[in-house]
Write a structure and sequence with these properties.
This protein is α/β, with parallel strands linked by helices and 464 residues long. The chain is built from 18 helices and twelve strands. Strand 10, helix 11 and strand 11 form a beta-alpha-beta unit. Helix 1 crosses helix 3 and helix 5 runs antiparallel to helix 11. The chain is elongated and about 95 Å long.
Length: 464
């Protein structure tokens, strides 16, 4: 199977795909009488479009003669010749998930670039969330234009795409700063001062997104409280930061195995060494989320400095389809990720000191935001008592000493009593505190904590 130009002989096979899409994908989106009429006209429509005299625009299919699985029709926009346009894209519903649609749309995008078209448009039914998500993963975004064609009687929105070179030029994080054109000639003390000044503005930029962060934290807390998972997903630096935050939740908050986890484009090996091209795989994010059994109870946090990483966009779209909550962390404004995620967080850090090196300010901003998401969610879930780390997992000498100090402070006791209580509680900090504060044994303390849902403050209130 491969991409090839369609011929007139393909008309019946294309019509079958066309009809299947209309009858299986559009109920509830388009009025049923419209579906029946349009689907029934498939063969005459495509026979006409594939006639030599009617072939004003390329038609490309996926499959062998007579066995078409997908079709795309595209070309120059008849109303704006300097702009490309996708007139139609249909993929057999029975072949969903095989990447056929992505291959077809990428072929059209390559054609646009080869023909000097840096921008293209297409129309999609407004209520067709799956199609809109698919296009978002391929870097198509709403441009504010809407219509209702009499033939379809259904609201449509226009999506726009830009060639990656043009797209990157519009991103602040990719912009080169003329005032730093002599950066490599500066002395070390000057470079240190400069980087420190750059970093000082990151916290301010994060603060400007406080309302967005608050909404996302609330969504994360609700999902975790209901038994769901917090799943970070990203590529490169963004993916590594997500895995770092997820990993640190275990010793800090004693989270359950798998309750907070991170995924990175290219798999675990990408933590230490870049996996080239993995971030461009729009279907990879969905595959990785399927592999961990993403459910509607979970929340997915997509992380992408540019806000356009296909791997992350595909993951967020799949989260939306499943019914999971979705958060998008980007370091530019008005991003595809911001449009796709239910809870966008866009931190405008501005251009990097080294143009495009988003491990710098963007990476710092992402780390700050992820710290907020996980830490505040855990605080709201009762994982701290005041500012004390009462769910710490004491796995080494330093953490055992910290656990003892926490018990001393929370229970108002001395080292000896704190150590004895911890030993009796099997190292469980909250249990030891309840024992000392209520004068009970470990079993009773655990019962109190269980009745309070593990919340120490509620468990102590119950004892009064």
């Amino acid at each position: 199977m491969s991409l090839r130009a369609a011929t007139l002989q393909d008309a019946p096979a294309i019509a079958r795909v066309f009809e299947a899409c209309w009858r299986e994908a559009y109920p509830g989106v388009v009025p049923q009488p419209v579906i029946e009429k349009v689907a029934g006209d498939g063969l005459p429509l495509w026979t006409r479009l594939l006639q030599p005299e009617g072939g004003h625009w390329p038609v490309v299919v996926w499959g062998q003669p007579g066995e078409v699985s997908g079709v795309i029709r595209f070309g120059r926009d008849p109303d704006q010749p300097e702009t490309g346009h996708v007139f139609s894209l249909y993929v057999d519903p029975s072949t969903s998930g095989r990447g056929i649609g992505a291959a077809l749309i990428r072929h059209a995008q390559d054609w646009f670039v080869e023909n000097g078209l840096s921008r293209a448009t297409l129309w999609v039914f407004e209520a067709n969330a799956r199609a809109r998500g698919f296009y978002a993963a391929q870097r198509w975004r709403p441009d504010g234009q809407t219509r209702i064609e009499p033939e379809f009687e259904t609201p449509e929105v226009r999506l726009s795409w830009r060639a990656i070179e043009t797209e990157l030029e519009s991103l602040e994080t990719e912009r080169s700063r003329p005032e730093l054109s002599e950066l490599d000639t500066l002395a070390v003390p000057e470079l240190v001062r400069l980087m420190n000044e750059e970093d000082a503005g990151v916290a301010v930029a994060v603060g400007a997104a406080a309302a967005q962060i608050s909404a996302a934290v609330t969504a994360v807390t609700e999902r975790l409280a209901a038994g769901g998972r917090l799943i970070y997903i990203g590529a490169g630096t963004a993916g590594r930061l997500g895995i770092l935050d997820a990993t640190e939740c275990i010793p800090t908050f004693n989270t359950k195995p798998g309750q907070v986890l991170g995924l990175i484009a290219g798999g675990g090996g990408a933590m230490a060494e870049a996996v080239e091209g993995a971030e461009d795989d729009a279907s990879g994010g969905e595959r990785d989320l399927r592999a961990i059994g993403l459910s509607p109870q979970d929340v997915v946090v997509g992380i992408s400095a540019s806000g356009r990483t296909p791997y992350v966009l595909g993951a967020v779209e799949y989260a939306n389809q499943v019914g999971a909550a979705s958060v998008g962390v980007a370091c530019n404004l008005g991003t595809l990720l911001g449009v796709s995620a239910q809870h966008p967080i866009e931190v405008a850090v501005g251009p990097e000191m080294i143009a495009g090196s988003t491990r710098l300010k963007s990476g710092t901003a992402q780390k700050l935001v992820l710290n907020m998401i996980s830490t505040i969610a855990m605080v709201r879930l009762g994982k701290t008592y005041g500012n004390l780390m009462i769910d710490v997992r004491a796995t080494n000498e330093k953490l055992r000493a910290r656990a003892q100090r926490i018990v001393q402070k929370a229970a108002g006791t001395d080292q000896v009593q704190a150590r004895r209580a911890l030993d009796a509680a099997g190292g469980e900090v909250k249990t030891a505190i309840v024992m000392l504060r209520t004068g009970t044994g470990a079993a009773d303390a655990r019962d109190r904590l269980e009745r309070s849902g593990g919340n120490l403050r509620r468990a102590l209130s119950e004892s009064r």
